[in-house]
Amino acid sequence: MSERFKYRGDREAHSAARVRALEALLIKKGIITDRTVDTVLEFFETKMGPFNGAKIVARAWIDPAFKERLVADTSKAIAELDLPDGMAGAEGEHMRAVANTPGVHNLIICTLCSCYPWPVLGLPPYWYKDPTFRSRAAREPRAVLAEFGLPISEDVEVKVWDSSAQIRWFVVPERPAGTEGLSETDLEALVTPEAMMGVAVAKAA
Amino acid sequence: MKLQHYLGGLEGLGPVSTETKVFVEAWETRIFGIHTAMMALSTQLPLPQTPSAFNTIWTWADLRKGAESLNPFDYFKYRYYEKWLGGIAGYFIQHGYITEEELDALTEEYCQDLSKPLPTAGDAAIDDRVVQYLVEGDSAKRDVPVVAEFSVGDLVRIENVPSVEHTRLPGFLRNKTGIVESVYPGAYAYLCDTGSDGIGPAMTVYCVRFDPSDLWPGNAEPNFSLYADLYARYVASADVSVSAKAA
Asked: Measured between beta carbons, which residues in chain B are less than 8 angstroms from residue A19?
């Protein structure tokens, strides 16, 4: 987009100054405190983030019955695990997991904005929020996935889920081949946010 | 009619971004924190009162309305958090918390010296409420009885509701036919009343499956289904005779 539109020469410096001025005024006027923004950011470093999603997927890989429960009633299954407080909190009140199989590949989008399962995956990456992805993935998912380096054949059914109401969606990617001997912790390391939204598969062992 | 409600399927946009970072500039983290705090302090929530001077409503609906009210070219021109900064600064000015003059003046000061400190102030109760909001969330589910009109497998038609400012109906689904994939148990409110568009009060939500070759005839990939979660107001019977009787 940068080559198509004209921006002010100090685009980022101006935004940085303006958001700092806004934060300063909000603190001065007693709307927030000098710790509020950092409190929010720290919450996403420790309580809500892809580290939760990785644990959920690793457990699903090891325990097929858990995986079935995860797809049938996502929030209830997540509550079985030892995860931080807030898994049913902001943007996690109503969640649905869909599982990839050899015959079905799932992709999550939000054509209206950027709805994302915060407790499970933290905050959305830029690619997910970009209007180009949101527009194109609705009509040509395989073409978009190819640009992510993930070719999906026409023999594999693609299901695209548009997050247009209260549900926050995520994908349970397939367990990579050759990971039979790995511990649950080792399996967690193979799970990425991209794999849990459907633009990638889990990393190879 | 807002382009922002009709993005699904738009062509000619070039390659997607594959950027995996959440924030591409450090300043973006600050507007994210401010938005989250506003949602936590918003007056409609049943959370403990705090000394915060924030005494209005701010939800995802307000953030979305701000972005949806932009010139569509600006919607593409500005990055995600640039749109947030514009919308949120505008909200605080519009509601009289700050003036544009003082924001511009202080922006100029920080432009000259970004390292100038922020004020030191605030009651910990404000930050406690923000954490409580994140942990407890704000569920859309309402304890009201509803009888879902449709069941799994039903053929439905999406209504061409009169949407003005804001909607949760992706435009490319208007007047299209789909099949109910799930009926979410219970009733769900939306964060604001959308007027003639019809959502706000608690109602059933359906997950509906669409055939992309019906959405984009001759121009969609094969062996692919598109699903959307739709408030009951947007979903009607595909049986013409039933709709005529109900009218």
From this structure: 27, 30-31, 34, 85
Six-digit token pair at B36? 């989250």
Q: What is the pTM of this model?
A: 0.97
Q: Which domain holds residue A31?
A: 11-44
d(CA B36, CA B39): 5
- CB proximity B188 to A under 8 Å: yes
**SS3 state at B160:** coil
Q: Which residue reads 């100029």 in tokens?
A: B108
* Catalytic residue IDs of A: 110, 113-115
* Interchain CB distance below 8 Å, B168 and A164: yes
Q: Which of B25, B121, B188 sits opposite A33 (nearest CB)?
A: B121
**pLDDT value, residue A2:** 65
Residue B184 corresponds to which tokens in the numbers above? 């979410």
Tell me the pLDDT of chain B averaged across its residues. 96
CA-nearest of B132, B54, B138 to B92 is: B54
Domain extent for B234:
155-246
Provide the pairing of β-strand B141-142 with B187-188: antiparallel
Do A57 and A122 lie in one domain? The reply is yes
Of A4, A112, A143, the CB nearest to B5: A112
